[in-house]
Please model this.
Amino acid sequence: MRTVASFAFLMLMFLIVPAGCSSTRHAPATPAPVMRVRLLSNQDQVLMTASAQPKLRTASDVRPRALQFPLGQAVQIMLSGDGWRVGGVPLGGGELLLEQEGDGSVAVNGKNYHGRFRFIPTTAGRFDVLNDVDVDSYLKGVLAAEMLSRWDMEAFKAQAIVARTYSLYQANTVGLTRAFDVEDTTADQVYGGIASETDKARQAVDATSGIVLTAGAGNGKIFKAYFSACCGGISQSSYDGFGETYNEVLGERNNGAMCNEAPRFNWGPIEMRKDELTRRIKVWGAAKGNPVRDMGTLDRLDIQYVNRFGRPVRFLVTDTKGTRYTLGSEETRNACNADSGDGPKLWSSFFKTIVSSDTIQFVEGHGFGHGVGLCQWCAQTMATRGYKAEYILEQSYPRAQRRRAY
Model:
C-alpha cells in the first residue's frame, strides 16, 4: 500500500484551500505526504552506521527486531540466497525495513537521512535502497543541493514550492507504477540528506509548507513543474523539450538577459569529432530504441526548427549515406552526451553548429540544463531585484495558481 496521499485526496485539498506565500509557517491541515526516494540502485552490499540501535523487519518477521550492533561502526547489509544478512546476522527474505531509533541516527554508505529505509530485492543478490521521508524533510535536503547557498530567500521559497509540486506530481503518476517516487539525482531532484541541509533551506521549506502549484480550469491540478539552472535567455516548452502535450503553463518564454550572471549563460565553442559523435548517438539510439541507432557515420548536425523566440527545438542528424534522422532538442543533447566519460559535453540544447570535414563545433551556446519551467538563475535575479516568490512563480509558470495541498 502506498504511503503517499492519494492523487484524489490531493485534488480534494486543492479545491478547499487557496494559498499564498508567507514567512510565517502555517500548521499543516493534514500530515505531509511521504516521498519514496531511491538512494541507491542495484547494490550488492551497503554499509550501515548507527548512533542508536535501529529496528529491522523482514517480510517473514511478526515484529521488528532490535539487534545489538556496535554503535558508530560500519555494519554490512547484503542479500544472499537464503535472505538478508546484517552484520553477519541472518534475517528473512523479501523486503527489509529499517526504522531509526532517532531521526538521523542511521547512515547508509556514510549519509544520514530523515525517515526510514527500505531495502528492496531486485535481482539475485542485489537490491535498491529507498528512503521513506515526509515531503518537507525531503525538500530541505533538496533545496540545499539544488540552490547556491548565497542566493536570496525569495528564490529559495519559489524553488521550495516548485520542488514540492514536482515531487507530488511524480509520486502520484510514475510513482504509482513502481516502488519509488523519485531518484536522488538530477534524473529528478538532487537530494543530499541531512548533511546537505542549511538554515536557509529549512526556513524556505517551512515558510511554504503545503503550498504547491496547479494549472487548468477552476482550482486546477498539480503538474510536472520542471526547473533547470539557466535558460540562456530563452526557455523552451515541455512540448518541444520532452514531446509532452502542449501546456501553456510550461510554455516557452523570452527572459532576455535575466540570467546572464550564470557562468554558462554563454558557452562554447565545443568541438567533437564526427566519429566520436557517431558512436555516442548510436549508443543513445540503442538504449532508447530510436532508429538513429542504425545510422552510418555522422555527416551533419543541423537545426531543423526553432521556437517563436529563436531557440532551437529540433535537429536533423544526417549520415554519410544521406539518411536523415530528426531528433528533439533534449534528445539531441542527450544523444551527443551519451557515454561521454571524461570527454566534452553539451551544457544545453541551445546552440548552433559549424560542420567541417572531421568535426562539428557547437557554437553560440546558451544556458545550462533543459530550459523548461523555472530558470533558477532568473529566479535569483528577480529575488535580488526585490520581487517575492509569488511574482517569480507567476513569471516562470504563466497562469499557474498556488494552492495548499496539506
Q: What stands out?
A: Residues 18 and 403 are 5 Å apart (CA to CA). Residues 136-225+373-404 form one domain.
